[in-house]
Amino acid sequence: MEKRIAHLNMILGLLDIVNRSDLSAKRWAISFTAVFIALGTQQPGFHVAYLAILPMVLLWFIDAQNYRREYLLKKLYDRVRALPEEEIDFSIDIETLPEARQGALRWMFSSTAFTFYGAMIAGVVIVDAFVL
After folding, report:
1. Pair 75, 97: CB distance under 8 Å
2. What is the pLDDT, as a whole number, of residue 13?
3. What is the pLDDT of residues 21-74, one digit of tens each?
4. How far apart are CA 60 and CA 70, in angstroms?
5. Could you say which of 11, 26, 62, 93 has the lowest number of CB atoms within 10 Å?
6. What is the number of domains present in the chain?
């Protein structure tokens, strides 16, 4: 039973790291948006705010990778939880799971990621079009 608990705790630690990375990507996206909108107010006639979209798309992809890793780690957790004690090998290779074939693009358009980053991009466009 101790091996199972140790392995599950290791997976939970990795889930915590992935979740912190997810929050960090969202913070960076908000920061980039704010900075480029602020710069857009200083440059009338030049659409600086649109420059925020490129780093936002890159952060969107990173965030999608984090969603994918989180999903796979949860699947690994469920698999380890059901394994007999003698088969626990402390492997954390999530790429060997059958669900690992799904790429990050699938996760980019999940409801959570698409809602957040789609709203951020739409916000940049709306602010640039009507405010700046």
Report:
1. yes
2. 95
3. 999 999 999 998 898 888 888 877 677 778 888 899 999 999 999 999 999 999
4. 15
5. 93
6. 1
Rounded Cα gap, residues 17 and 88, in angstroms: 22
Q: Give residue 26's domain range.
A: 2-130
Q: d(Cα 72, Cα 66) in Å, to the nearest integer?
A: 10
**Taking the alpha carbons of 74, 92, 5, 3 in that order, is the dihedral positive or negative?**
positive
- Mapping DSSP to helix (H, G, I), strand (E, B) and coil, where does residue 27 land? helix
Interatomic CA distance for residues 64 and 110, integer angstroms = 8
The CA distance from 52 to 117, in Å, is 12
**Predicted confidence (pLDDT) per residue in 86-105, tens digit:** 888 888 889 888 888 888 78
